[in-house]
Write a structure and sequence with these properties.
Keywords: Lyase. Pfam families: Pect-lyase_RHGA_epim. InterPro entries: Pectin_lyas_fold (IPR012334), Pectin_lyase_fold/virulence (IPR011050), RHGA/B-epi-like_pectate_lyase (IPR024535). With 761 residues, the chain is mainly beta. It folds into five domains: 180 residues, Galactose-binding domain-like (Jelly Rolls); 109 residues, no CATH class; 70 residues, Thrombin, subunit H (Beta Barrel), CATH 2.40.10; 177 residues, no CATH class; 82 residues, no CATH class. It is 5% helix and 44% strand. It has a 20-stranded parallel sheet that branches. The protein has a ten-stranded parallel sheet with strand order 24-33-36-40-44-47-50-53-56-59, with no helix packed on it. A hairpin with a 6-residue loop joins strand 27 and strand 28. The longest helix is centred in the middle third of the chain and has 12 residues. 45% of the residues are buried.
Length: 761
């Protein structure tokens, strides 16, 4: 590009033949002395080398020659000033290109170099050419860097050294040499043309902003160097990074046209820092709803504290997604679990609080709480150091009084715990290789509809996804894979958990999980768990199995449907209840387990697929529906598919109501169960009281609470073999286990009847 051609900019000074009144012996500024009538200057019309030229005698320590015209200096335009000189007589001086850098209003721009390198004249009559390149940007080959303040210049030369010598000077040449520096000026704007230095310390924010302002759709080039940006910088056009940038934590770099992780990696070079800055930009602009990682893998050397990347925020509630990439744990030291033990007091009247906590400042938010009477997956939700108390994610079932608690703070690849609220946030198509050194994701303290979709959480050391508060409200986990690091461990030795929830309305759909201690601990209600496959077996013959899903809220309002539940079981507890014995609340109720495939192999005969484990007395089943499931045991039968774990308490079977347990299939099960239970009973000899045993075929070893119907199957006859049409009365809940029904007749009878018996009311 040549400004004289493309924009009609006048660069070349007039020849000396046109007169010396436009050439100054000073700086070239208006009002300075000219050579028009100077005693030491004269125009020579016919020099044998130069043709017309200026003959000048040096008469001052620095004899100046400046063109008084205003030669414009535009951003991105580089000028070369060339002068040819020869000594004629007298002392031999030195010569250099020089200029006057003029700012707006004509004042001089201080602090910039305005003289070139001096070249000595050593021989009379020998032509010496001196030149210098002047421009706004600091580029290799630019002699005089004037920055953006300089709007124009007065260019010429200086004679230095001894006085008295006479020289002849050819016409001054000023030409546009921008093409030497810019490879594609028409499509590219270079930040150096706007004053960017790239030395790693100088603040180049203003230069970046200026380049963006004039780009007008052209690409912006950030050439080699390290550019410090102390303030927010936004690019509205495409940017190409050959160099890198550095920024303080609070400063935002927004690449509107290149908002994807590869561009930020180009900008920051360090992958972790690039992701942090890209995430910061995601939460600080309204132009993009998602951050595309472009399939890039980030080697994560320490937990990424997500709130630290956006120090200006404590909560966020606008839909944002991170998608299409990988976070892989690297190293080991930074991932060590922080464990501390402190004494604290629990009062069931303050259901989710520990008081008088010793050294509470040392306990980290998000820590797992362990101690006597503490249920599974109870975490530190928040803490108050001044008042020495801790808020828990769930109540404790039997911890009243003072004891020592252990607090384990696992380390997570992505740690959102610093957010007080994070809503409508999602992870889509992300892989988390935890490599058995760390956990996957720690949610915010609270928030709605956190979504994890099409993700792989691979080999977490302790936890896949952890909710330490209410950040799981309405959470959606969809089409993900949870791949345990404990595949080779026996069930009894496993400790990892796929995920947990505390709040309501989670949707867990179409996932696959392998060999955790527990895949899911569900602490809230109204959960929908559909279409998942999770398996937790081992190679121990007759070995134990752990719960795949733990439902920790008795009034569940949940749906578990269409899952493949393989070598594990559903455990339903009330371990997150500060008063676990029944009083007046809803008991174990409102749960639907429908259309699932249950499979086990090589397990102990007492294994069951559905286990109810009350932690206090007086509880019962109500509104439970277990229908359309397929139960199958291979490599050995099991006794029954359902049972009550009485480690803490038993159920009150006299209060069962609205329990539907039917339409299921049983293979390799010694005692199939159903409610209502359909029985056929025959008496070969006459008896006035028929004793009918349900043989343990009522679910959860329930009582035979009522007989819904009795119908004769064929003729009923008395002891005289006379057909009778009598109707018996029923006595339910008979026998030592209250699981028998007695039919009473008005006379001894024999024959066969069909009965429908229920274990609920």
């Amino acid at each position: 590009m040549n400004k004289a051609i493309t924009d009609g900019v006048l660069l070349m000074p007039p020849p000396f033949a046109n007169g010396l009144d436009v050439y100054s012996s000073g700086d070239g500024t208006p009002g300075s002395d000219t050579y028009a009538s100077a005693a030491n200057a004269a125009f020579v019309p016919a020099d044998q080398d130069f043709g017309g030229c200026l003959e000048l005698q040096k008469n001052a320590s620095t004899t100046k020659l400046r063109y008084m015209g205003e030669t414009p200096l535009l951003p991105g335009c580089y000028l070369r000033v060339t002068v040819r000189v020869k000594a004629i007589s007298g002392n031999l001086p030195s010569v250099r290109v020089a200029g006057y850098a003029a700012a707006a209003g004509g004042g001089n721009v201080s602090g910039v170099a305005q003289i070139g390198d001096s070249v000595p004249l050593t021989t009379y009559g020998k032509i010496v050419e001196v030149s210098a390149i002047i421009g706004t940007g600091n580029r290799n080959g630019v002699d005089l860097v004037w920055g953006r303040q300089a709007l124009y210049g007065h260019f010429g030369l200086d004679l230095t050294g001894s006085n008295g010598g006479v020289v002849r000077i050819d016409d001054i040449v000023i030409e546009d040499v921008t093409a030497v520096f810019l490879r594609d000026m028409l499509a590219q704007v270079d930040v150096r043309d706007f004053g960017a230095v790239g030395d790693g310390t100088t603040d180049d924010s203003a230069a970046f902003d200026a380049a963006n302002a004039v780009a007008n759709g052209r690409h912006v080039l950030v050439p080699a160097g390290v550019y410090r940006l102390n303030n927010d910088v936004t690019f509205d056009t495409h940017v190409r990074f050959e160099g890198t940038v550095s920024m303080p934590a609070e400063a935002v770099l927004l690449l509107r046209r290149d908002f994807h992780l590869p561009a930020y990696i180009d900008a920051f070079e360090n992958e972790e820092e690039a992701f942090k800055k890209a995430f910061q930009a995601l939460l600080n602009n309204a132009d993009h709803e998602s951050l595309d990682m472009g399939g890039r893998k980030i080697s994560v050397t320490a937990p990424i504290d997500m709130i630290a990347t956006v120090p200006s925020k404590t909560s966020y509630a606008t839909r944002r997604i991170i998608r299409n990439g990988q976070f892989e744990a690297s190293g080991a030291a930074a991932w060590t679990t922080y464990t501390t033990t402190s004494q604290a007091t629990y009062d069931p009247g303050n259901t989710t609080r520990l008081d008088n906590v010793v050294n509470v400042a040392n306990i980290e938010v998000g820590s797992l709480v362990e101690g006597n009477g503490v249920g599974r997956e109870v975490y530190v939700r928040s803490k108050n150091v001044a008042q020495q108390h801790i808020t828990l994610s769930a109540p404790l079932f039997d911890a009243e009084g003072t004891q020592n608690f252990t607090f384990k703070r696992f380390k997570y690849l992505l740690d959102f715990s610093g957010f007080s609220n994070l809503a409508k946030f999602g992870l889509d198509g992300i892989e988390f290789p935890c490599n058995n050194v760390c956990s996957g994701i720690l949610l915010a303290e609270s928030g709605l509809t956190f979504t994890v979709q099409d993700c792989f959480i691979s080999r977490p050391k302790d936890r896949g996804i952890t909710s330490h508060g209410g950040g799981c409200q309405g959470m959606i986990i969809d089409r993900c894979q949870f791949l345990s690091s404990e595949d080779g461990a026996n069930v009894s030795d496993r400790v990892s958990v796929g995920f947990n929830t505390n709040a309501n309305d989670v949707k867990i759909r179409n996932n696959r999980a392998t060999k955790f201690r527990h895949w899911a601990v569900i602490g809230g209600g109204s959960s929908i768990i559909i279409g998942n496959h999770f398996f937790q077996g081992d190679t121990v013959d007759g070995g134990i199995r752990s719960a795949g899903i733990v439902m920790a809220k008795p009034h569940s309002s949940g749906v578990i449907s269409g899952n493949y539940i393989d070598n594990c079981f559903i455990e339903w507890t009330n371990e997150h209840d500060q008063a676990p014995e029944f009083s007046s609340e809803f008991s174990f109720s409102a749960l639907s387990i429908t259309g699932n495939t249950f499979l086990s192999g090589g397990v102990a005969p007492w294994f069951s697929y559905i286990v109810v484990k009350p932690h206090g007395a007086g509880h019962f089943l109500a509104g439970l529906s277990i229908t359309g499931n397929k139960f199958r045991s291979i490599s050995g039968n099991i006794d029954r598919v359902e049972r009550v774990d009485t480690s803490f308490a038993d159920l009150d079977r006299g209060r069962f109501k609205d329990v539907e347990f039917h339409g299921n299939s049983f293979h390799g099960i010694n005692t199939p169960v159903s409610n209502p239970l359909r029985l056929r009973h025959g008496e070969a000899g006459t008896a006035q009281t028929w004793v009918i045993d349900t043989k343990g075929e009522l679910p959860f070893e329930g009582w035979a609470s009522q007989v819904v119907s009795v119908t004769a199957h064929g003729r009923l006859r008395n002891e005289n073999n006379v057909t009778r049409f009598d109707m018996p009365y029923t006595d339910p809940e008979e026998g030592p286990n209250r699981d028998q029904v007695h039919l009473g007749w008005d006379q001894p009878m024999k024959g066969t009847v069909n009965l429908v018996v229920r274990m609920d009311n």
